Each structure stands twice: as C-alpha cells, then as structure tokens.
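In this section we walk through a basic example: taking a raw amino acid sequence and producing a predicted 3D structure, encoded as discrete structure tokens. The instruction is simple. Fold the sequence below.
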Amino acid sequence: MSPPGRPKGECRSAQHEGTPGAMRPPGEECRGVQRNGEPAGPAAPDATFAIRPACAADVGTVLRMIRALAEFEQLSHHCVATEAELHAALFGPRPAAEVLVAWEGATAAGFALFFHNFSTFLGRRGLWLEDLWVEPAQRRRGCAQALLRALARIARERDCGRFEWAVLDWNTAAIDFYRALGATVLDDWRIVRVVGPALERLAEPR
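The resulting token sequence is shown next.
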C-alpha cells in the first residue's frame, strides 16, 4: 500500500510571475469539465466563493498561484513548471491532474490541484490533494474550507475510499485547521523521494 505522504516542493518555480488581481472567471463552456467520462464537479458556491473546475484559459492564473505557494513554502528554487507543461498536464491527451479554482466575482481567490491514487488495502482509488492555496487577501474567509468541501464531494461522487494530502510539519496553523475539519495527521509515515541523479542511477540496468 502506498504511503499517504507526498513530497512537497518537487514542482515549484524560481520565479513569481504576474501580479494578483482581477482574472477572467471561466465561462459557461469551462464548467462541469469531464475527465475520463467523470464530472470534475459542478460549480459549488458558498456564501462568498464559487468553486469551479479550471479550464484551459485559467492555466496562467493557476501557475501564478502555484508560484506564490512555492514562495510561501520557501521552495521557489524547486519550482520549474512552465505554463505549457501545466497546460499539457491538465488538458493534454492524457490529463495527469485536475484543478478547482475558487472565485470571488472575477477574482481568483485560490486553487486546489488533485488527482487519483489507489489503495491496495481498500481495493479502491482515493483522491489526492497535491496543492491547496488561498491568496493572502482572501484568507480567514472560508475559501480553503470551501475548496476542501468541494473536493470531499468529488471524492464521494467518485466512490473514493480516501481523501488525502500532506502538510509541512512547521505549518502548525494548517495542521490545526485540518484536524478541526476531522482530518487525521499520520505522524508515523515518512515521505520517500528519488529525484534527479538518484533517479537516473536507480533506473539504469544493473
């Protein structure tokens, strides 16, 4: 069974391009995007934020927020993703992930990037939250909770056995927030990573 942790920081950017501000919300054609015949989740408004699946026109906005996240996590030197790479990963022939964007009017307030993993013990796939980000100006207003609840609904609709993510051990505010929502922090698991030259060596035939 795969460990429930995930390496933070392997997809970050050394630059923080663009500036926060008003962004064009996705049009009607961008909502309810289908992936492999499954709904990415309907628009899920709450009192303040509308949560919608990202469309291709939102890639630049999502990448800007990914870079802001990398800066917050002090991992900007690891963020090398380009807009073209992110577009291919989200909207290419074989999408690797999906994104929900939280909107307040025409302003992008945050995002959640997720994909499916699998539990051999449960015999069911799970939903893995790779990154969650809320813009500083939008924090403490329920945006993160709105994104997490929208993801939980997707996990339920897709019959996932688990909804999981990782959190940096120094981010105590986030840990307390997740626990308050009912999440369990698994202290007995460690993340194992092979990257760069080590990955090349491991892949070589003996």
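Looking at the output, two observations stand out. The first helix runs from residue 59 to 72. The radius of gyration is 17 Å. In the next section we compare this with other chains.
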